[in-house]
Amino acid sequence: MKKSSATATRSRIEDYAFVSDTQSGALISRDGGVDWLCLPRFDSGACFAALLGGSENGTWTLTPQGKIRKRERRYRGDTLILETDLQTSEGAVRYIDFMPPRGTNPDIVRIIEGLRGRVKIRMELIIRFDYGSIVPWVRRRHGGLEAIAGPDALILHTPLETHGEDLKTVAEFTVQQGERVPFVLTWYASHEPPPREVDPEKALRETESYWSDWSKQCDHQGRWRDAVMRSLLTLKGLTYAPTGGIVAALTTSLPEEIGGIRNWDYRFCWLRDATFTLFSLLSAGFREEASAWREWLLRAIAGSPAQLQIMYGVRGERRLIEHELAWLNGYENSQPVREGNAASNQFQLDVYGEVVDAIYQAHRAGLETSEADWRMQVAVLNFLESKWHEPDEGIWEVRGPRQQFTHSKVMAWVAFDRAVKMVEQCGCSANDHLGRWKKLRDQIHREVCERGYNSKKQAFTQSYGSDAMDASVLMLPLVGFLPPNDGRVRNTIAAVERDLLEDGLVLRYRPEEKRVDGLPGREGVFLPCSFWLADCWHLTGRKKEARLLFERLLDLRNDVGLLSEEYDPKEERQLGNFPQAFTHVGLINTARVLRTNQAR
User: Of 20, 74, 359, 414, which is least surrounded by CB within 10 A?
Assistant: First the structure.
């Protein structure tokens, strides 16, 4: 297909809000455009892909015809119901956008409410299946407007008259005070009849009740409660409810550098996130979600430990083949646009530590480990015994040569340390392994301290023998490898501050140094790493600095409390996929550390 000739997008990443039905989600701009929506799942092909191309790649806009004088938006309480108030020269309207939590058929509902005066609005619906590449066949049928192509079908229900215009569906109407005009767009499999029409007002009431009831479980009170609650709602919105898997982000290919090639598909579930996510859910009182995430994890990794992957699909799929969607220009001409992720085939030692630690932390919190679960862990540890000394691609999934990454070795230590604790503290039976695991734990610890610590640099560095810094070494005190008051930890924190701070925020590493990741260009500061630095500062007694950094990070959220993966301090804008689960998990966990003085 011919590549889009339009400007890539009209909105900054932080200009978007997020709605979800806990199986998929949409991004809605400040201007009221639905520019990203994949149906029926998070990782399905997008039917609105203007985010990564132009409007001709699919969007759904509601545009007031008068001059907009003021625009405000918010979520309705502790929900994922988005409300956008627009004041024009003729009056004021409110857009109410949401996706009702569902079973089989996803819906996106838009209700326009008249607040004052009479406002003329133009609705344009441009449906393009398969990431903006397929123009559907549109016809009036089943009491609505049907769009069908291949396996996908959408049906629009609205009381308004619509008409076709230049391969898009258009309606022009006026809303006056007290009026409410609904639109309901529903996906279904094209070989089946469309589902029963949704009552938009009833769906709104039920959706509000769903989210409000869920939010009441949160036991995080006091300082930063609103920020933590919004992050928890974001995690819930990124959860694929049928399996409990949590995707890393809603999007693919939002760039880590505007105009660069560091554009990846994050609509999958990373094992690396396992322990962090469990901590955040359990610490806030959401045991059911934590249990579902753990169960997803155990199902996904079932099988031979040699075949364990760093990420899986929302149902545990293993084949996440990466390819380019050449017809899309990319966000602000950042190419390529990718579907799938080749990093799923990488070897990363750290995930073994994350898996064992996640199960250990869940067990400590009262989520019992079955005998079968324990046997699986023993198999993982047996495999790790013969592999921990090998080089790997590391936590950042570098696409350069494998190395002896310090963080990877630390997480191998975590695996054996938590296994020993499972036996000693939790009563798991492994007497024939315990002595060997203790020796391996001590051996790895000695090696990391000898080879991972650079005496000239006075810091633990990115890899053995390197003088390059990497923010992942901030994890050493957070996972208990060394106590926060250890001189080597304090020196390492200082080295991170010297080498990786950019306008007071933390880079993962400096890509331009030695091209460790095998890619050209650079990237923004990595927001989860800045939360880690706040944790380290707090645990080493620099509590005021930690609080100020945390509050600065809170200030980087957009107007509805959302964060992406990275941030550009010079341009003062968010970068990377959005909203990013790992970042919001970091926010939740740092709020807990600052309140309790405890890491994981």
Answer: 74
The DSSP output letter for 449 is I
Quickly name the fold that domain 217-596 has.
Answer: Glycosyltransferase (1.50.10)
Q: HSE of 209 in the Cβ direction (CA atoms, 13 Å)? A: 6
Helix (H, G, I), strand (E, B) or coil at 2: coil
Cβ–Cβ < 8 Å for 394, 315:
no
Q: What is the pLDDT along the chain (600 residues), one digit of tens a residue?
A: 545 444 444 699 999 999 999 999 999 999 999 999 999 999 999 999 999 999 999 999 999 998 999 999 999 999 999 999 999 999 999 999 999 998 789 999 999 999 999 999 999 999 999 999 999 999 999 899 999 999 999 999 999 999 999 999 999 999 999 999 999 999 999 999 999 999 999 999 999 999 999 999 998 888 899 999 999 999 999 999 999 999 999 999 999 999 999 999 999 999 988 888 988 999 899 999 999 999 999 999 988 898 999 999 999 999 999 999 999 999 999 999 999 999 999 999 999 999 999 999 998 888 888 888 888 889 999 999 999 999 999 999 888 889 999 999 999 999 999 999 999 887 777 778 999 999 999 999 999 999 999 999 999 999 999 999 999 999 999 999 999 999 999 999 999 999 999 999 999 999 776 567 778 888 999 999 999 999 999 999 999 999 999 999 999 999 999 999 999 999 999 999 999 999 999 999 999 999 887 766
Round to whole Å and give the CA distance between 446 and 450.
6
Q: What is the DSSP letter of 474?
A: G
For 518, the token pair is: 């095998």
**How far is the C-alpha of 186 from the C-alpha of 200, rounded, in Å?**
12
Both tokens of residue 442? Answer: 């001590």
CA nearest neighbour of 530 among 564, 479, 484: 564
Within 13 A of 176's CA, how many CA atoms are on the CB side? 1
DSSP secondary structure letters along 491-529: HHHHHHHHHHEETTEE-S--TTSTTTTS-SS---EEHHH
Q: How far apart are CA 343 and CA 397, in angstroms?
A: 6
DSSP state of 572: T
Contact by Cβ (8 Å): 363, 279: no
CATH architecture of 13-214: Distorted Sandwich (2.70)
Q: Where are the domains of the chain?
A: 13-214, 217-596
Q: How far apart are CA 347 and CA 309, in angstroms?
A: 7
- Report the distance separating Cα 539 and Cα 139, nearest Å: 62
CB atoms within 10 A of CB 166: 8
